[in-house]
């Protein structure tokens, strides 16, 4: 009986979900959305915002914790100046104004992942105000659009709650507690899910480019909350009731969640029902948002000035030094690199998407084919980085080592297969030169035609059926013999030479 009830209940639930999607699709199209984003971005600082603990995100749980992070009585916070500098870089990169007097506040709320019982943040006097991010056709939009920034504030991250390990408890890892974040709050200038995704993607590229953050959503170094409301044309775009979507951890999830919430709110408005102000999550499997809790307002957090962290005063000279340390903007770098190296926009955007990669490329391309260098970086180097789960800045590979490999390959001192083995060695930390490694491994290129012809004749004699097939027009048999010859020479023959030798030997048997 209970099983039947559960089955019927499950079927009814699926029916209502399907009905909701149909109703959403049929919702009046004249309703428009107003969207604002809050991005929480972990800074590339070696130590936490108010303690000397490491910010390494993948160490064993509860190993990077100081007394301040754990909220132990009597432990006082001490501001890390590196975090202030990185936050200032973000403000300037976003065309904002650094506030020369900024201060910290306590934001009170009680969760297991908040050891202090409050978060130290910047509610009243953030480090940055104003600024903007411009989107356009290069970002996948049909027109130019400027998204204004309301403010950028420094704050502490929370600890990490771990569910599902113990049936009765939620575990807490304090390694992340106290890590420095910048929260970037946009104005509600975004109209669609596509614009929201373009904004986040461009913010990722910009902050990586200026060295502020890794911005890896899969690691949690960029987390996104989205505020969504709907309104009718002619109404104030802020007239709708705002709902916040929490814990959106990928660009695909952001797009799905925003579209689902716009559809949900549009359906309610079309029915004449009120949209409640609340915080919601997103179920990607069912493409639906779900309620988490009623939305808190500022008074609920009982903000108060942080008594243990002094007000920060920033001079014009300090701001000028930070500004002078910024690299050229991604737009300027894109235009310059395309013109200087005759590369496609896609290639340059790929190089710019990896922090420090454009500089690495330019050093390696000096006096060499820019297209050859960029091809090796975007295919072989990036392939190895992806396999190792590394960033280029974390790899021991230097531009000088890559140029030595390419020069040896261009001079016929090594084969493409050996070049790839050398690259792997350098990315493993090898320090010897190319010549030393070639000699140590016996990788000298076999360029003696007579020697290769002798090996090719042996192979043809050993595989008469394949030879007969080639002579009957099965030209793919050529690749079979080339592969066998490369195997016999342990990849010490150049593929082009091996192909020529084998073809000549086969054609001679006609």
TrEMBL record:
It catalyses: L-glutamyl-tRNA(Gln) + L-glutamine + ATP + H2O = L-glutaminyl-tRNA(Gln) + L-glutamate + ADP + phosphate + H(+). InterPro entries: Asn/Gln-tRNA_amidoTrfase_suB/E (IPR017959), Asn/Gln-tRNA_Trfase_suB/E_cat (IPR006075), Asn/Gln_amidotransferase (IPR018027), Asn/Gln_tRNA_amidoTrase-B-like (IPR003789), GatB (IPR004413), GatB_Yqey_C_2 (IPR023168), Gln-tRNA_amidoTrfase_suB_CS (IPR017958), Gln_synth/guanido_kin_cat_dom (IPR014746). Its main location: mitochondrion. The keyword Nucleotide-binding applies. One of its GO terms (biological process) is mitochondrial translation. It is found in: Mitochondrion. One of its GO terms (molecular function) is ATP binding. Residues 359-506 form the Asn/Gln amidotransferase domain. It holds the Pfam family GatB_Yqey. The keyword Cell membrane does not apply. PROSITE patterns: GATB. It is an enzyme of class 6 (ligase). SUPFAM superfamilies: GatB/YqeY motif (SSF89095), Glutamine synthetase/guanido kinase (SSF55931). One of its GO terms (cellular component) is mitochondrion. Its EC number is 6.3.5.-. Keywords: ATP-binding, Ligase, Mitochondrion, Nucleotide-binding, Protein biosynthesis. Belongs to the GatB/GatE family. GatB subfamily. Allows the formation of correctly charged Gln-tRNA(Gln) through the transamidation of misacylated Glu-tRNA(Gln) in the mitochondria. The reaction takes place in the presence of glutamine and ATP through an activated gamma-phospho-Glu-tRNA(Gln). HAMAP family: GatB (MF_00121). Subunit of the heterotrimeric GatCAB amidotransferase (AdT) complex, composed of A, B and C subunits. This is Glutamyl-tRNA(Gln) amidotransferase subunit B, mitochondrial.
């Amino acid at each position: 009986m209970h099983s039947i009830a559960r089955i019927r209940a499950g079927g009814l639930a699926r029916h209502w979900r399907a009905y909701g999607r149909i109703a959403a699709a049929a919702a009046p199209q004249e309703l428009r959305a107003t969207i604002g984003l809050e991005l929480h971005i972990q800074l590339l600082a070696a130590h936490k915002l108010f303690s000397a603990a490491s910010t390494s995100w993948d160490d064993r749980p509860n190993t990077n914790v100081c007394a301040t992070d754990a909220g132990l009585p009597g432990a006082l916070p001490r501001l890390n100046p590196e975090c202030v500098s990185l936050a200032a870089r973000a403000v300037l990169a976003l065309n904002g104004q650094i506030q020369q007097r900024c201060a910290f506040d306590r934001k009170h709320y009680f969760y297991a992942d908040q050891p202090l019982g409050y978060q130290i943040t910047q509610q009243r006097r953030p480090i940055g105000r104003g600024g903007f991010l411009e989107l356009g056709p290069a970002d996948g939009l049909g027109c130019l659009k400027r998204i204004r920034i309301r403010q950028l504030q420094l704050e502490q991250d929370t600890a990490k709650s771990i569910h599902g390990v113990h049936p009765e408890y939620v575990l807490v890892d304090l390694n992340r507690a106290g890590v420095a974040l910048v929260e970037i709050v946009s104005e509600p200038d975004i109209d669609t899910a596509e614009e929201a995704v373009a904004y986040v993607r461009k913010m990722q590229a910009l902050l990586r480019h200026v060295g502020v953050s890794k911005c890896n959503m899969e690691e949690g170094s960029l987390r996104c909350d989205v505020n969504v409301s709907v309104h009718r044309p002619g109404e104030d775009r802020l007239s709708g009731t705002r709902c916040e979507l929490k814990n959106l951890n990928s660009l695909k999830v952001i797009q799905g969640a925003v579209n689902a919430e716009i559809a949900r709110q549009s359906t309610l408005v079309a029915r004449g029902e009120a949209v409640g102000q609340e915080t919601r999550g997103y179920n990607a499997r069912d493409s639906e948002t779900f309620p988490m809790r009623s939305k808190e307002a500022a008074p609920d957090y009982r903000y108060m000035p942080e008594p243990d962290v002094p007000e920060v005063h920033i001079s014009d000279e300090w701001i000028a030094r930070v500004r002078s340390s910024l690299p050229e903007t991604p737009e300027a770098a894109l235009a310059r690199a395309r013109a200087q190296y005759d590369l496609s926009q896609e290639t340059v955007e790929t190089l710019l998407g990896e922090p420090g990669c454009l500089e690495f490329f330019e050093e390696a391309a000096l006096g060499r084919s820019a297209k050859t260098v960029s091809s090796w970086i975007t295919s072989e180097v990036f392939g190895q980085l992806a396999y190792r789960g590394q960033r280029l800045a974390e790899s021991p590979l230097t531009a000088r080592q890559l140029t030595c490999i390419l020069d040896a390959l261009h001079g016929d001192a090594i084969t493409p297969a050996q070049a790839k083995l050398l690259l792997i060695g350098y990315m493993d930390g090898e320090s010897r030169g190319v010549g030393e490694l070639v000699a140590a491994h016996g990788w000298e290129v076999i360029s003696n035609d007579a020697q290769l012809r002798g090996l090719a004749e042996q192979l043809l004699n050993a595989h008469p059926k394949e030879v007969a097939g080639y002579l009957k027009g099965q030209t793919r048999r050529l690749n079979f013999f080339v592969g066998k010859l490369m195997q016999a020479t342990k990849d010490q023959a150049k593929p082009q030479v091996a192909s020529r030798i084998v073809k000549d030997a086969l054609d001679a048997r006609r």
